[in-house]
Backbone:
């Protein structure tokens, strides 16, 4: 692996990883995609590695200038608690050993329920198991900094986009609309809820890894103004379309049979109150505007 301007995307086969690889390739960066299988992104070099193994994590970062942590795990609090600290710990140790700057992709779970818009200054006060795992990960990054780690955090709201198979919006709205069915929103379709478009995530992470201005801070990635669930469904399927709503009772019944439903229950608060994500600092600093929701939905449905 060459040591010159090499950008390594950890978790390069996930939707955010793929978008980050593509964005770096468009910038002309020498880009390596790391995963358990070869990358499907044209032009990217592949390294097959299991980041649960510290030796393989070290090998993946050998020669790297910047690494992007876009790793995804099964949506399970137990799996997160068991594997996230190991994978991130191995990555942090490898980044310190190789003097690699780490761009860490994060979500908002560590904030817990909030009042008002979420900003980079929102306190970390998680109330869920998955939120506590995310908060512990942030603590691990800061502990790593005391040992020489250089890192930047890029955080998004709930995401959606082409190929985002694990996105709630993709699954419950866009996939249903594509199949000729009514889109379904969770709990309260009249609450505002921010959604981040995955190609915007990839573009923004590439900026965080290539622009020195970004280093050492937490950034909220470009996200269009929040709409209500009902408005999202109308954009996806037409102004007269019916917006179905899944109640808590239905979700609890589904939890008896489906793990995904069980895992969603602890995140109920995200769909019962305003969930508004402020990315104005990134947008003003780097002169970047998020993709409009209408365009993002159209691009996702076209795939």
Residues:
């Amino acid at each position: 692996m060459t040591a010159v301007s090499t950008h390594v995307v950890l978790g390069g086969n996930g939707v955010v990883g793929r978008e980050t690889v593509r964005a770096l390739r468009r910038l002309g960066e020498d880009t390596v995609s790391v995963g358990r299988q070869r990358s499907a992104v044209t032009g990217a070099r592949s390294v097959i590695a299991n980041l649960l193994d510290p030796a393989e994590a070290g090998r993946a970062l050998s020669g790297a200038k910047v690494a992007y942590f876009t790793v995804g795990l099964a949506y399970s609090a137990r799996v997160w608690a068991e594997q996230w600290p190991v994978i991130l710990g191995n990555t942090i140790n490898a980044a310190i050993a190789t003097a690699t700057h780490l761009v860490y992709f994060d979500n908002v779970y560590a904030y817990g329920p909030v009042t008002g818009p979420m900003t980079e200054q929102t306190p970390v006060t998680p109330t869920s198991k998955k939120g506590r795992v995310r908060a512990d990960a942030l603590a691990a990054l800061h502990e790593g900094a005391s040992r020489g780690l250089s890192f930047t955090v890029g955080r998004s709201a709930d995401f959606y986009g082409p190929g985002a198979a694990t996105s709630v919006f993709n699954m419950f709205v866009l996939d249903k609309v594509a199949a000729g069915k009514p889109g379904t929103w969770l709990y309260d379709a009249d609450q505002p809820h921010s959604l981040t478009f995955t190609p915007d995530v990839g573009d923004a992470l590439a900026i965080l890894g290539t622009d020195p201005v970004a280093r050492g801070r937490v950034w909220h990635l470009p996200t269009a103004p929040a709409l209500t669930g009902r408005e999202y469904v109308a954009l996806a399927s037409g102004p007269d379309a019916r917006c179905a709503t899944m109640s808590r009772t239905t979700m609890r019944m589904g939890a008896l049979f489906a793990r995904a439903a069980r895992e969603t229950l602890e995140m109920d608060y995200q769909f019962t109150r305003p969930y508004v994500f402020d990315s104005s600092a990134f947008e003003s600093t780097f002169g970047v505007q998020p993709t409009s929701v209408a365009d993002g939905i159209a691009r996702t449905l076209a795939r």
